[in-house]
Amino acid sequence: MSNVRANRVAEQLKKEVSAIIQRELKDPRIGFITVTDVDVTGDLQQAKVFITVYGEEEERKQTFDGLEKAKGFIRSEAGKRIQLRKTPEISFEFDESIERGNRIETLIREMKEKE
């Protein structure tokens, strides 16, 4: 039962964190971000927010630094909106799956062209 609740909290947290980043953060270091997934532990104490960042490596680093700086604000705003007894600690991680998928697609396309 707690797994179902953790999944519901993760989906709500994904929606709220995405909205907070898009609408309320004014940090110029933060570029174009997509929140791809949120993984919440069963006890609702920790949340990993997976993001993709459009841009070069330096832009990604600056965006990540900006998000780390705003982590407390994002957590408090999400806590107000979701109304849990204790808001999960948020950590940000890059989601490499889209890049990996594009790389695999490119390799397959190149192999087909060689045939």
From TrEMBL:
The record's family statement is: Belongs to the RbfA family.
Q: What does the function comment of this entry state?
A: One of several proteins that assist in the late maturation steps of the functional core of the 30S ribosomal subunit. Associates with free 30S ribosomal subunits (but not with 30S subunits that are part of 70S ribosomes or polysomes). Required for efficient processing of 16S rRNA. May interact with the 5'-terminal helix region of 16S rRNA.
- Source domain of life is Bacteria
Name recorded for this polypeptide: Ribosome-binding factor A
- Per the UniProt entry, what are the Gene Ontology biological process annotations, in alphabetical order? maturation of SSU-rRNA
- Subcellular localization(s) per the UniProt record: Cytoplasm
Q: Looking at the UniProt record for this protein, which Gene Ontology cellular component terms does it annotate, in alphabetical order? A: cytosol
Gene3D superfamilies, per the entry: 3.30.300.20
Assembly, in brief, is:
Monomer. Binds 30S ribosomal subunits, but not 50S ribosomal subunits or 70S ribosomes.
Ranges that cross the membrane: none
Q: Name one GO molecular function term.
A: ribosomal small subunit binding
| Keyword terms, alphabetized | Cytoplasm, Ribosome biogenesis
Q: Look up and give the organism this protein is from.
A: Alkalicoccus saliphilus
Q: Which InterPro entries match?
A: KH_dom-like_a/b, RbfA, RbfA_dom_sf, Ribosome-bd_factorA_CS
Q: What PROSITE patterns would the database entry show?
A: RBFA
